[in-house]
Amino acid sequence: SYVLTQPPSVSVAPGQTARITCGGNNIGSKSVHWYQQKSGQAPVVVVYDDNDRPSGIPERFSGSNSGNTATLTISRVEAGDEADYYCQVLDSSSDRLWVFGGGTKLTVL
Amino acid sequence: QLLLQESGPGLVKPSETLSLTCTVSGGSISTRNYYWGWIRQPPGKGLEWIGTIYYSGSTYYSPSLKSRVTISVGTSNSQFSLKLSSVTAADTAVYYCASAPQGYILTGYYIYWGQGTLVTVSS
């Protein structure tokens, strides 16, 4: 089955840029989605289809996807961005299987 | 905008069947516009996809849970359900229902989520 690999944690100072990676075999051929989950809350999609943002999500959130790595970039990080972030793809190689990465804890120093 | 709400027992005994319902407001289950899914999150752990259903009745299940999972559309146009059989303590988790839009193509992101419901498996 398809596997997505994320670093367990990323730390960044306020105002700096955070980059969270998501690795997968030829992930560049798939659409990657990113969710933000704050403590005790349901996940919220912050980037979908590699680099689209739902309404209400700041432009500071962006994504890229190429080769074997997708990246969520958060510019001008704020304290309120501290959360767990998950990448996700739909693996349609044999059937439709939704796959989540293991999650990355973003700490704002 | 859709609102989703999970409901069901918060405590299930080992070896029994976990049953949850997701009630959708602001739209109908019987639409080509969305796929309807279940995702769970054990305490302190990451998200795990359980399965997804389309209005046509097509279902897609996680290979690791497939033998124990059934997702179905309710008799009303506003509910779909999850059944997970032979539960153990490892099935203790917050269970979320969510919807994925079917646009020009299905890319599978969940745009709307319920608030989640904690189900504990214990005798």
Identify the notable features of this structure and list them briefly:
heterodimer, A: 109 residues, mainly beta, three-stranded antiparallel β-sheet, 9 strands, 46% strand, globular, B: 123 residues, seven-stranded mixed β-sheet, 11 strands, 0% helix
- pLDDT < 50 runs, ≥5 residues of chain A: none
- Tally of helical runs of chain A: 0
Mean pLDDT of chain B: 95
Q: What form of chain B results from the Cα inertia axes?
A: globular
How large is the count of helical segments of chain B?
A: 0
**Which segments of chain B are poorly predicted (pLDDT under 50) over 5 or more consecutive residues?**
none
Mean pLDDT across the residues of chain A is 97
CA(first)-CA(last) distance of chain A: 36 Å
Q: How many strands of chain A?
A: 9
Structural class by helix and strand composition of chain A: mainly beta
Largest sheet of chain B, in brief, is: 7 strands, mixed
Gap from first CA to last CA of chain B: 39 Å
- Following the backbone from N to C, one meets helices and strands of chain B in this order, namely EEEEEEEEEEE
SSE class of chain B: mainly beta
**Sheet of most strands of chain A:** 6 strands, mixed
Our estimate of the beta-strand percent of chain A is over 45%
Measured as a percent range, the helix fraction of chain B is under 10%
Q: What are the secondary-structure elements of chain A, in order, as H or E?
A: EEEEEEEEE
Radius of gyration computed on alpha carbons of chain A: 13 Å
